[in-house]
Amino acid sequence: MERIDKLLSKVSTPSFFAVSEFTFGETKGKTVASVDLTDASALRAILFAVKNAKVSRPNYDSLEKCALINYEFKRIEKESEALDGLLAGDAILALDGQDGLMLINARKYETRAVAEPPTSGVIKGPREGFIESIKTNLSLVERKLKTEKLKVERLKIGRRTKTDVAIVSVDGIAEEKVISEIRKKLTAIDIDGIIDAHYVQTYLEPRPYSIFNQIGSCEKPDIVVAKILEGRVAVFVDGSPIVLTLPFMFFEDVQSPEDYYERSTFASFLRVTRIVALMIGIFLPGLYVALEIYHFSVLPLQLLLTIMNATKGVPFPPLVEILFVTFLFEIIREAGVRMPQAMGLAMSVVGALVLGDTAVKAGFIGSPAVMIVALSSISAYTVPNVASSTAILRVAFTVIGGTLGIYGLLVCGVFLALYISGMNAYETPYLAPYAPDISRDKQDGLLKTPIVDSIRRPKSIPHVNSTRQSKKGER
Fold it and tell me: Distance of alpha carbon 196 from its chain centroid, rounded?
């Protein structure tokens, strides 16, 4: 069985692989599998079935019919394909006198259990989340999408990791142009390894240097299935619990998984609250600095006197004071994230209270600055997916407010809106359905209408079938 020996000669550590010889009728055969990645019990079951199979003409075809009916298998001719499968944990089987090899899926998966994801907790709705196994993740989607139209296209990316990547869509809903563009970008990736979905995300984004999210990410199967049914395409990456969805719009970040399990009126109220909180998180520190330096005359007298009394004796100008408090809060937040979980919460709460209170009492900063920055930071995390973008914009608009005043904030705010409205990826406007104005899609925009009124799929997203459900009179 020179083919197996030749295959092992190409790996750096042949001792990591176990070789077994057997007799299949009058034909000799050999298997090779990884000691660590292949399920030993499955391999023993395969060898037992092969040895006890009673066939008149031993070959690969008879082997598939009588011995491998419980396993996924694939006939392969290329040696490179056999090597990739072997390194991934598959078993390779060779029969003497037969062309090609047999690749058998007997991988051993050591994965954590399916549980509620930590970033997308809900009170109502499904509590299952994706894990690091692409096989399990695809099965979670297939369990919800029981249709023969479900389309799964598999790729291998990474010269050394050869990571499994899957493009998932529904045939007859998703636009083929979008799928082709995603496939083209994925197949063009030439890198040593893909470790996580975020590696792939950078290659799929039209503006990789932008601070704004241009691709959706999700850890819940129910949300991914809902997006696929709207015409989007999902990209699964082995080893990552994050699933990417394309195309993507800004208002997807404002939406929450729980919105779809609440009354539409309450969900709409929550979305408006998130938008207002997002604006507070971005503009409030800059507005405070601008009013204190340039436009203090517009403040009510009592409020102005309160601010003056609270900031009396502070050695820093308002702009430096706000920036100092902002960076102080960012340092505390980062330390709380990086420290061990048992200490992180105590560090965040105690550190913020002690440092903030001590700094105010010492006269380094004023209490209004602490309140403004704290309110801004908390508001930003009502939309956690854009918290990183909000942190950068908060600092930028604080500097603008301290140097150019309210007029500078207005002008820069307009430029920011123009920049965002000009973003377009995979034939979907970033600010749809409001820029451009698409009335039909506003049923699930800032305000949410009941599902019973969602007759058609979003026009903003390319698709080939716009009908989501029958009309009211047709039910």
Answer: 10
pTM of the model: 0.82
Over residues 167-194, the pLDDT tens digits come to: 999 988 988 999 999 999 999 999 998 9
Element (H, E) at 95: strand 91-95
* Sheet arrangement for strand 17-24: 17-24, 27-34, 91-95, 101-104, 73-76
Domain boundaries, the chain: 2-104, 134-255, 261-421
Instruction: Answer yes or no: is pLDDT of 474 > 50.
Output: no
Chain segment 291-336, per-residue pLDDT in tens: 888 887 777 888 778 878 777 777 888 888 899 888 888 887 877 7
Angle between the N-to-C axes of helices 264-293 and 367-380, in degrees from 0 to 180, rounded to the nearest 10? 150
Region for 221 from its dihedrals, namely left if φ exceeds 0, alpha if ψ lies in -120 to 50, beta otherwise = alpha
Burial 36-66 (b: 16+ CB within 10 A, else e): ebbbeebbeebbebbeebeeeebebebbeee
Which runs of consecutive H residues, i.e. helices, occur in 422-469?
Answer: none
The residue ranges of DSSP E strands in 97-157, in sequence order, are 101-104, 150-157
Lay out the sheet containing 233-237: strands in order across.
Answer: 150-157, 163-170, 233-237, 243-246, 216-218
The per-residue pLDDT for 352 is 65
Round to whole Å and give the CA distance between 102 and 273: 58
